[in-house]
Specification:
This protein is α/β, with parallel strands linked by helices. The protein contains 22 helices and 15 strands.
Length: 571
């Protein structure tokens, strides 16, 4: 690197950490080093990068920014640069590696989907330091706090909400140390500017219209004003900051289901509230205005959907068994990722960030961020009050945390319903958790074992993800979907619908609209489907690396290439 002296940077860092010197350094990197030291201690304490399960990641952000990020990534092929999208907590939502060099770089530093790169977890870096400072940064080599990044250059910048200026996400370019990285900072800033423009959806006149109405009503009204636009864009006035996530969910559901302007009434956290709704067409392109001085509404209360989709024999058997077990010993819901365990535990369709008032949800993955002691304290507090408790993702807990959770649950008030969720592909792994917590387990079937529910699930998810888009799946497309293995289960189905919405699709969904991997299942024999699924899982485990996938499968690389071509797999 032309202007970077690794030894000098290391010496400056050691001087700051050991003597407290505040000698001038790049931006406020000395302050970042101090924050990192206060949170972590010695840089050598950082070993592997911690990860949270995919189930806790904000898919909404990925849906919103996925299309432009894909376009950015296309221009990076052959550069060795990897592109990262992280949420406001420094959790990696997705990575884009357009060549082997970029993929190998991220593999070496442990940066994959779900990686936690918050500054208080892995120290100074091009994701967590952006979150901590709210500013664009470039961290080079030994300027990183942790030794694992000493051969990396990370250039990150914040994506701010164009109205509220709240941090939405962080995008980062990461690569091995190489000359001429000085131009990466303006490049990343240009990308974030485009993403902020994307939030406004300038290509969609309906969003501009929505914004104009929002600004007009915000000036006229002193009451909270909340606007919902295409692709999940949400804007709220300063007065609306007091609304709880549940309030927002109820207001959004009102707009989705009402379909027309008028006065309505909802039971919010502050009590019965009059809602003045301005519907602007195209599904969720609406503006909701809350005004306590409004006249008594003439329209009925509209509540979000409360029933979990599914009427197959396999699904109803699970639902009925859970209902019979509630209220006694802890109930353990186990199954593959994305099968709907959290929704079953809550008793209603689950949306990230929204929990019904009838339950308390504690996410085990939070333990990786706040630490075991604080997480167990939160768990103990959640057992007070008598509200049914749901602990999600206990497979992410280590042995001390599991022992601590057992102690907390053993001291809970008598009669408090407790439901635990466990993500696993192997039913025989459930027994150990049953014994540890004295729980009664229920195995939640994967989507491939209840394909009779696909039509109802499609209808329910399109109503939630794409109201007004009329995404009606054709019979031949539905038949093909029923042959597919659905490794991501219901979550994968939701992502498919979201991708169709982002691509601008509306109306009937044909076979040609389905992903290539799904189309490849057409007319396959049982053995071919098993082979296809094995290759797909190996590629997923290897994060697209075909050489690693071949090693996992125990076949040659040429065989993997030939099979991928035959099954039209993209990797």
């Amino acid at each position: 690197m032309n202007d970077f002296d690794a030894r000098a940077a290391q010496a400056r860092k050691e001087e700051v950490l050991h003597s407290g010197s505040s000698r001038s350094t790049t931006f406020d990197i000395a302050e970042s080093w101090r924050r990192s030291q206060a949170a972590i201690g010695d840089p050598g304490n950082i070993g592997e990068v911690p990860h949270v399960p995919e189930a806790v990641l904000d898919e909404h952000l990925l849906d919103m920014f996925g299309a432009p990020m894909n376009r950015f990534a296309e221009d990076l092929e052959g550069t060795g640069l990897a592109l990262l999208l992280a949420d406001s907590r420094g959790q990696i939502l997705q990575r884009w590696c357009e060549d082997r060099q970029a993929r190998a770089h991220l593999d070496r530093v442990g940066t994959s989907r779900g990686a936690v790169l918050a500054e208080n977890v892995v120290g100074t870096n091009g994701v967590g330091t952006v979150v901590a400072t709210g500013s664009a940064v470039q961290i080079r080599g030994t300027e990183h706090f942790a030794d694992i990044y000493q051969n990396a250059v990370c250039t990150g910048a914040p994506v701010l909400h164009p109205i509220t200026r709240r941090l939405l996400a962080v995008i980062t370019l990461s690569c091995d140390i190489t000359p001429r990285t000085d131009l990466l900072k303006p490049l990343v800033k240009s990308m974030t500017a485009q993403l902020e423009q994307h939030v406004m959806s300038v290509e969609q006149p309906a969003t501009r219209q929505m914004l104009n109405v929002f600004l007009d009503q915000s000036r006229k009204r002193e009451a909270p004003v909340v606007a919902f636009g295409p692709q999940g864009v949400m804007i709220q006035s300063q007065q609306a900051n007091t609304l709880t996530p549940r309030d927002i969910a109820l207001i959004r559901a009102l707009g989705d289901e009402a379909g027309e302007s008028g006065l309505y009434e909802l039971e919010l956290s502050t009590g019965r509230t009059a809602i003045d709704l301005t519907a602007m067409g195209r599904g969720n392109n609406i503006v909701v205005l809350g005004d306590a001085s409004a006249a008594r509404p003439s329209r009925p209360v509209v509540a979000p959907p409360t029933r979990i989709a599914g009427r197959s024999q396999e699904w109803l058997a699970v639902v009925n068994r859970i209902e019979r077990l509630r209220g006694g010993d802890p109930v353990l819901l186990a199954g593959e990722t994305g099968v709907g365990k959290t929704s079953l535990a809550l008793g209603s369709p689950h949306r990230a960030g929204h929990v019904p008032s009838t339950a308390r949800l504690v996410d085990a993955a939070e333990r990786h961020i706040v630490g075991t002691l604080q997480w167990l304290t939160q768990l103990r507090e959640a057992t007070a009050g008598g509200t049914p408790l749901v602990v999600r993702g206990i497979e992410t807990l280590d042995a001390p945390a599991l022992d601590g959770m057992r102690a907390v649950l053993e001291s809970k008030p008598d009669g408090l319903p407790v439901t635990l969720t466990l993500t696993t592909d192997a039913p025989d792994e459930v027994e150990a958790f049953e014994l540890k917590f004295g729980a009664r387990s229920v195995w939640v079937p994967p989507l491939r074992d209840r394909v009779a529910d696909l039509a109802e699930l499609w209808a329910a998810l399109t109503a939630s993800v794409a109201p007004g888009q009329r995404l009606e799946v054709r019979a031949d497309a539905l038949s093909l979907m029923q042959q597919y293995r659905w490794p991501g289960n219901v979550k994968e189905l939701r992502q498919l619908i979201s991708q169709l919405v982002v691509s601008g699709r509306s109306g009937p969904v044909e076979v040609s609209d389905l992903p290539a991997a799904m189309q490849a299942t057409k007319n396959l024999t049982l053995i071919e489907r098993v082979e296809l699924e094995a290759i797909r899982k190996a590629l997923q485990e290897a994060e697209g690396n075909r050489v690693k996938a071949a090693d996992i499968l125990g076949v040659s690389r040429a065989t993997v290439y030939r099979k991928m071509k035959a099954y039209r797999l993209v990797g």
